[in-house]
Amino acid sequence: SRSINLAVIPGDGIGQEVVAEGLKVLSAVLPQDVKLETKEYDFGAKRYHATGETLTDADTEALKQHDAILLGAIGDPSVPSGVLERGFLLKLRFLFDHHVNLRPSKLLPGVATPLAGEPSIDFVVVREGTEGPYTGNGGTIRKGTPHEVATEVSVNTAFGVERVVRDAFARAQARPRKKLALIHKNNVLAFAGHLWTNIFNQVAAEFPDVTTEYMHVDAATIYLVTQPERFDVIVTDNLFGDIITDLAAAVSGGIGVAASGNINPSGEFPSMFEPVHGSAPDIAGQGKADPTATVLSVALLLRHLGYDAEAARIDEAVAVDLAERTGKPARSTAEIGDALAVRVAG
Amino acid sequence: SRSINLAVIPGDGIGQEVVAEGLKVLSAVLPQDVKLETKEYDFGAKRYHATGETLTDADTEALKQHDAILLGAIGDPSVPSGVLERGFLLKLRFLFDHHVNLRPSKLLPGVATPLAGEPSIDFVVVREGTEGPYTGNGGTIRKGTPHEVATEVSVNTAFGVERVVRDAFARAQARPRKKLALIHKNNVLAFAGHLWTNIFNQVAAEFPDVTTEYMHVDAATIYLVTQPERFDVIVTDNLFGDIITDLAAAVSGGIGVAASGNINPSGEFPSMFEPVHGSAPDIAGQGKADPTATVLSVALLLRHLGYDAEAARIDEAVAVDLAERTGKPARSTAEIGDALAVRVAG
Ligand SMILES: CC(C)[C@H](C(=O)O)[C@@H](O)C(=O)O
Ligand SMILES: CC(C)[C@H](C(=O)O)[C@@H](O)C(=O)O
């Protein structure tokens, strides 16, 4: 009999509320014969204040025992900027080798976009998750003096670039339009740019049915607001991916519906799924948060574990729910979760 | 009597056409007593193909003799990506210490924006121009092998950050709203992020009447499409500035109207002014290019040289011209230039 052994990290702010709804929908969508086990972990600001810990060795050992991780949100204004980001989120991405950071953008009917007209948006960004300027390499000399010099080193390896580029080609090939865009800044960042471009072109030769294009990251931001329909699959480096996926989320309905997966495709370590929105402390505890992004992250999680039909049922339920919102009064976090749970069970 | 000794670099593609109109408007707006001398330089793809040169020592010596530089566009598909960018444009920014890369974004009446509603956009980005990931530091080992490693080093100095932050504060203080946003990614790029944030906060203490905020670059892309009216002055690093100013141009009417200045505020070396659009080889030589961004760059040039009233006349003429376009047939490059020349002379 099948089973899912899930690590659940509600985290900070609205994390607790949205994760509860994500689990509600997950339970509702799973077939009877799939045994769902969950274990909750207390990472985040509260634990940090109480113990000074963000993620210990014992924690990572415990997390390794799970099939996947569902994360709400980590981050609180009471913790200095960067501490939880680097001490928990990025640490886990690196330790668990989450090199495929998957971020789909789809503008669903009934969802508001800041763009004029009725753009048709349906693409997915494959963001590298373990290299680039995110490695923490670099340093500071003469800190705090008028002669301070601070460096940040972007580290890019053929190994790291090839595996994510390959993953993106495979995803592009599996989609109807079969298009893949590489986004970089190879006219300026020539060392990393050459590596990325060269490997991209090499792997492209193995996927002759995939149409490719190259685009500078600055130009990509223009296309994302003027011709978002142009994109199908995008592959890009860690920092460019961070920037353009927030923009992509904004134009395709906002971070309220943006889901993401921190994926280790080999399965050596558990992958982690999380809504793109943060902990939103300003609305925490009020039942106001929209759990949709978390529910869509659950769909990514299910697809990663091979439950494609169940993932599709969630996507479908969310699409119908969003389409029916127009003109209706706002619902609470739990009401939206309940409605989605009913739909996916149905 | 006053004089302007201008270096003119038409460059590639539509550069020639738009620069001709920029000069037409410049001549028309200048008072009789100001002597305008211009000298044309042949930098760009043609010269590169003929001689292999992008910018020689003799060239930079010659350029140094001018009060300012007007550039059309550099870049052609026949030249490998990066060669002219690094060999000419970036080289000049570094040699002439163009540390204030100034990029205003203003959505003028009658101008189309990809954003829904009628956003009110009027901000200016002060992008650092001589540091960050643009320094060309970094390298490659085992090039072309499966074990290649490529690095890019972002170099940030207290000297370089403080002067551009100070410039941005002064600009913010001179504007009615007096708001300044620092855009960085200090939760991840902690070395450079700390330097930027620390200096920003220190300088802020000297400008108590300027309201400040800090924003991560990823979040900034969201605000640029959902709340662009939020911004007044932005200061940011070289690469983040590159990315967000293209997005800013896109939402405020497109790169057809986006002007920029590569400024050396001390005047030690001439500053360079250029439209943000590139050489657009696909429409070159057809009289189709819109010279407005070049004309607005001439206004930035005049303001830099202290001709504030003349700069204001150009801005005003462009605003009226743009407002009157709706519903009219498209005009040629020269027709738009003629119309603007008449208006500024008037
Ligand atoms: C919180 C931060 C470290 C993180 C990132 O930069 O990757 C976030 O912006 C994201 O996109 O997941
Ligand atoms: C052409 C390129 C080198 C340049 C840059 O990256 O600065 C351009 O994009 C710009 O913004 O002026």
How is this structure best described in words?
Two copies of one chain form a homodimer. Chain A contains eleven helices and twelve strands. Chain A is an alpha/beta fold and 346 residues long. Chain A has two domains: 1-98 and 261-346, Isopropylmalate Dehydrogenase, CATH 3.40.718; 113-252, 3-Layer(aba) Sandwich (Isopropylmalate Dehydrogenase), CATH 3.40.718. In chain A, the strands form two sheets. Chain A has a ten-stranded mixed sheet, sandwiched between helices. In chain A, helix 1 runs parallel beside helix 11 (333-345) and helix 5 packs across helix 6 (190-204). The two termini of chain A are 23 Å apart. Strand 7 (149-157) of chain A pairs antiparallel with strand 7 (149-157) of chain B, so a sheet runs across the interface. The structure holds 3-isopropylmalic acid (IPM) (2 copies). One 3-isopropylmalic acid sits between chains B (85, 89-90, 242) and A (187-188, 218).
List the helices and strands and how they pair.
The structure is a homodimer of 346-residue chains.
Chain A: E1 3-11, H1 15-29, E2 35-40, H2 45-51, H3 57-64, E3 68-73, H4 83-95, E4 100-106, E5 122-128, E6 138-141, E7 149-157, H5 158-173, E8 179-184, H6 190-204, E9 211-216, H7 217-226, E10 233-236, H8 238-251, E11 259-263, E12 271-275, H9 292-304, H10 308-323, H11 333-345
Parallel strand pairs in A: 1-2, 1-3, 3-12, 5-10, 8-9, 8-10
Antiparallel strand pairs in A: 4-5, 4-11, 6-7, 11-12
Helix pairs in contact in A: 1-9, 1-11, 5-6, 7-8, 9-10, 10-11
Bound molecules: 3-isopropylmalic acid (2 copies).
Main location (chains A, B): cytoplasm
EC number (chains A, B): 1.1.1.85
Domain Isopropylmalate dehydrogenase-like (chains A, B): 5-340
